[in-house]
Amino acid sequence: MVCCVHNIPGRARFKIEALRKDETLASLIKLKVGALDFVKSVEINRKAASVVVHYCTKRGEVGRIMDHICAHCPKAATPRAPEQVARPLPHRQNRPLLKTDTDFGRAMTNAAGKAVVNTLINRLVLHALH
After folding, report:
1. 85 near 4, Cβ under 8 Å?
2. What is the pLDDT of residues 50-88, one digit of tens each?
3. What is the per-residue burial (b if ≥16 Cβ within 10 Å, else e) of 47-72?
4. Of 13, 21, 23, 46, which has the maximum CB count within 10 A?
5. Domain of life, per the record (predicted)?
6. Cα torsion through 67, 72, 77, 83, rounded to 10
7. CB atoms within 10 A of CB 100
8. CA–CA gap between residue 31 and residue 9 (Å, rounded)
9. 40: enclosing H helix or E strand
10. What's residue 18's pLDDT?
């Protein structure tokens, strides 16, 4: 079975359980997917049953890579619905992850920073004493 487990623009990771047992499948996937004109590199980890593909986002997309794996590697392919392909998250345009423009937000950020520094100092002192 082929499953896209992680996808960010330009990089996708697929899980293919058949890779664990079949060395020729790994070679075939690397050869066939690597031959796509928009693919920059293909990394295979058989122990993790993982295929990482780096690709050019202007010329290719994850769905095409997955379809290519299924079409050229029958041992890896199983029928799947198109919605199973992971889609990249919309790009954030200069929006902060946390909104800290409130008094509460600033107070929480300050408290978290102090807690981290305090923990670091405590661990350094304990390490120095032992």
Report:
1. yes
2. 999 999 988 888 888 888 888 876 655 554 444 444 455
3. eebbbebebeeeebbbeebbbbbbee
4. 13
5. Bacteria
6. 0
7. 14
8. 22
9. strand 39-45
10. 87
